[in-house]
Design a protein that fits this description.
Layout lengths: L18 H16 L6 E2 L8 E2 L10 E9 L3 H8 L5 H13 L5 E11 L4 H17 L4 E8 L9 E12 L14 E6 L8 H11 L6 E2 L4 E2 H5 L7 H9 L5 E6 L4 H7 L6 E6 L7 H10 L3 H5 L6 E7 L4 H10 L4 E9 L8 E3 L8 E5 L6
Parallel strand pairs: 4-5, 11-15
Antiparallel strand pairs: 1-2, 3-6, 4-6, 7-12, 7-13, 8-9, 10-12, 11-13, 14-15
Helix pairs in contact: 1-4, 3-4
C-alpha cells in the first residue's frame, strides 16, 4: 500500500514547533535566572543539568534531603485570560518551596517546567522572570528548567507550569507530628489572598454570576482579575527565621493549601492530639466572602476548599508564642494566635477533621463563627 507524498516537505516548524522561538525565550530570561544563582551554583544557564556545590553538607551529622513538586492549578487560566504572566511564577515557588520548609528544610535548588501550545518568547520570559524573582526572595537558585511546545495538545495561548525543589534538614531537626505536645500554641500567618488553590470553584462562581475579570469591585479596591492574580505569599524566609530563633521552639509547620486549614493542620499532628481552632480570631478577607455570597457557597465547602486568610501555621511550644508572633510580624506579615493543641477526646462531627490526605494523624476542631468584617 502506497501513501501520498506531501507536495511541500514537512519540517518540525511546519508541525508547529518553533525551536528558534525557544532560543529567543532563553535569551530573554537568562539574566533573571542567573540572578538567582548563589555562590554554590556551578556552571551557567543552558546545560543539560544544573549543578550545585553541596560541600557544606559535610558539616551535617545526618543530612536528609527534602523534595517537593507542584503546580498552580487553574490559576493559570486567569493569567491567560488577562494576558498577565509575570506573577504566576511567585505562585509556583510558593507552592513548591514552602512545602519543603514545613519539615524545617532549607531549599537548595529549584527547577521549573512550562508546557505550551506555542512558544511566545516574551510570554515564556515573563513566566520565568516571575519564578526567578520569587526564587531570589526565598534564597533558592533556579537551577534549571524546560519549556516544551505541544501544538495540537494545548491551544496557542495555553500553558501550564510545574516546578520541583530540593532542600536539606538535619535528621534530628525535622519538624512534624513527633514534636507536637499538648499545650502547644497555633500561630497563624496571614495569607495574601486566594493563593493558588480552589480556583476551579472561584472561576465557576464567577462564570455562573456572569462576572468578568475586568469588573471593578469596591470592597476589593481593584478588579476581580487583579485580586485573583495576587501572588501567593512566600513564607520560607519567616519560617526559617522561626527555626533559627533561639527564643522560639517550633514543633511543626503547616502550609495551608488545597483542602483548607483543618485538613492541612491535621497532617502535622500526632494521633491522640487535637488542635482547637477558634474561627473568630481573625477576619476573613473580603475576596473569600465575595465568593461565598456570589455563589451561595456553604461555609463548610468554602473552608474545605480555600485558605480563608490563613496561609501558614506554626505549632510552637506554649512559652514561645509571643516570640513567634513578634518574629512573624517583624517580616511584615500579620500573625495571631489561632488556638492550641490538647488531648483528642475522639469526638466526631462536622466541625472535627481527622485522617486527612492519607495521613493517620491527629484531629482539628473548628469552633466559633467566622468574622467577615
Amino acid at each position: 500500500m502506497t501513501h501520498p507524498t506531501p507536495d511541500v516537505p514537512l519540517t518540525y516548524a511546519a508541525a508547529g514547533v518553533d525551536t528558534e522561538a525557544g532560543d529567543r525565550a532563553v535569551e530573554l530570561m537568562k539574566d533573571a535566572v542567573r540572578a538567582t544563582h548563589t555562590p554554590g551554583v556551578v556552571g551557567g544557564v543552558g546545560g543539560f543539568a544544573g549543578l550545585v556545590d553541596v560541600s557544606a553538607l559535610r558539616g551535617y551529622r545526618r543530612p536528609l534531603l527534602a523534595t517537593s513538586t507542584d503546580g498552580v492549578g487553574t490559576k493559570v487560566a486567569v493569567a491567560q485570560a488577562m494576558d498577565v504572566h509575570h506573577t504566576i511564577g511567585h505562585d509556583l515557588v510558593g507552592m513548591v518551596v514552602d512545602d519543603i520548609v514545613v519539615v524545617g528544610a532549607r531549599p537548595l535548588l529549584m527547577t521549573d517546567y512550562i508546557a505550551t501550545g506555542k512558544v511566545v518568547p516574551e510570554r515564556i520570559a515573563d513566566i520565568v522572570r516571575g519564578i526567578a524573582e520569587a526564587c531570589a526572595v526565598v534564597g533558592t537558585p533556579l537551577l534549571g528548567g524546560e519549556t516544551a511546545e505541544h501544538p495540537g495538545l494545548l491551544g496557542e495561548h495555553e500553558y501550564d507550569v510545574a516546578g520541583a525543589a530540593t532542600g536539606v534538614v538535619e535528621a534530628d531537626a525535622v519538624l512534624g507530628a513527633e514534636r507536637v505536645r499538648p499545650g502547644d500554641v497555633l500561630v497563624a500567618m496571614a495569607a495574601s489572598g486566594l493563593h493558588s488553590n480552589g480556583y476551579s470553584l472561584v472561576r465557576r462562581v464567577l462564570d455562573v454570576a456572569g462576572w468578568g475579570y475586568e469588573r471593578a469591585v469596591p470592597e476589593l479596591g481593584r478588579t476581580v482579575g487583579e485580586e485573583l492574580l495576587e501572588p501567593t505569599r512566600l513564607y520560607t524566609p519567616v519560617c526559617l527565621d522561626l527555626v533559627d530563633d533561639p527564643g522560639v521552639d517550633v514543633h511543626a509547620l503547616s502550609h495551608i493549601t488545597g483542602g483548607g486549614l483543618a485538613a492541612n493542620l491535621a497532617r502535622v499532628l500526632p494521633r491522640g492530639l487535637r488542635a482547637d481552632v477558634d474561627r473568630s480570631t481573625w477576619v476573613v478577607p473580603p475576596v473569600f466572602d465575595l465568593v461565598r455570597r456570589l455563589g451561595n457557597v456553604p461555609w463548610p465547602d468554602l473552608q474545605n476548599t480555600l485558605n480563608l486568610g490563613v496561609g501558614m501555621v506554626a505549632v510552637v511550644a506554649q512559652g514561645s508564642a509571643d516570640a513567634a508572633l513578634a518574629a512573624v510580624r517583624a517580616r511584615g506579615i500579620e500573625a495571631w494566635v489561632l488556638g492550641e493543641v490538647g488531648e483528642d477526646d475522639g469526638a466526631a462531627g462536622s466541625d472535627v477533621v481527622r485522617g486527612t490526605k492519607g495521613v493517620d494523624g491527629g484531629a482539628v476542631r473548628l469552633r466559633g463563627g467566622y468574622r467577615t468584617s
